[in-house]
Amino acid sequence: MYYNYGYGFDGGYLLWIILMIGCVAFASWAQLAVTTNFRKYSAVRTQNGLTGAQAAQAVLRANGVTGVRFAHIRGSLTDNFNPRTNVISLSDDVYDSTSVAAVGVAAHEAGHAVQYATGYAPIRLRNAIIPACNFGSGLAWPMLLIGLALGATSLMGIGVGLYALATLFQVVTLPVEINASRRAIHALEMEGLLTAQELPMARKTLFAAAMTYAAALATSLVQLLRLVLIFLANGGGRRHD
Ligand SMILES: [Zn+2]
Predict the structure, then answer these.
(1) 47 vs 36: CA distance, rounded Å
(2) CA of residue 201 to ligand 1 center, whole Å
(3) DSSP state at residue 191
(4) Is 109 a catalytic residue?
(5) Domain assignment present for 77
(6) Rounded distance, CA 148 to CA 152, Å?
(7) Catalytic-role residue among 109, 177, 189, 198
(8) C-alpha distance from residue 207 to each of 102, 116, 174, 179 (Å)
(9) Is 97 within 8 Å of 107 (Cβ atoms)?
(10) What's the CA gap between 50 and 46, in Å, rounded?
(11) Residues 73, 90 contacting (CB under 8 angstroms)
């Protein structure tokens, strides 16, 4: 049996390959920038000797947020905020470290806690759609392939729709991440926690992290394009009258 995977579709497949190469390059660059900047600014001690955990606490205090607990987490750059337990988990490189990178990362996680505490809408939306998005990303390809095998364009359409749902998660995640970093930098600046020389270093560390989310979004969009191309090349969207 032969399926048209969109290879001949108006050069669509060639376009897709070029876009995908671009995405892989972008994602690799962002990942490299994250590790390079984190390593570089992990070697720079904050002038006031503030640790990552203390910086996060200061960001929470500056925003009037109370009740958030702290925990250690293994690994590198595994730092996160869990809204269900209201716990900020900081990795060993961050928790007790007095580096500018540690302060930046910890303040970013505190930024997420502030987002929840203040009812920032995009993060609520993000959490509300997580189950549907996981469901969508798991079932999109199987649905598309079953639709192809059965020649059922409606099933293929559902597959495309499910992938679009998974992409929506990345669409919402990017502004949430950028906003957490903006809150972090703003608080570090307003509270005088970092000096004018240290702030740009923290900003660079967090900017690189945001770029990894931008790369994930770009990759998801290009993958969605591939599903759409396969859908169209196999009779999807064609009028039946
Ligand atoms: Zn984040």
Answers:
(1) 22
(2) 17
(3) T
(4) yes
(5) yes
(6) 6
(7) 109
(8) 14, 21, 12, 11
(9) no
(10) 6
(11) yes
Ligand 1 midpoint to CA 45 (Å) = 23
Centre of ligand 1 to C-alpha 180, Å, is 6
| Number of structural domains in the chain | 1
Helix (H, G, I), strand (E, B) or coil at 4: coil
Centre of ligand 1 to C-alpha 63, Å, is 17
Residue 30 Cα to ligand 1 middle (Å): 15
This prediction has a pTM of: 0.88
CA 181 to chain centre: 12
Residue 238 in domain: no
> Does residue 4 sit within a domain?
no
26: tokens are 């972008």
Handedness of CA 181, 112, 78, 29 (dihedral sign): negative
- Residue 203 near residue 185, CB atoms below 8 Å: yes
What's the pLDDT score for residue 241? 46
pLDDT in tens, 174-214: 999 999 999 999 999 999 999 999 999 999 999 999 999 99
What is the domain range of residue 229?
12-233
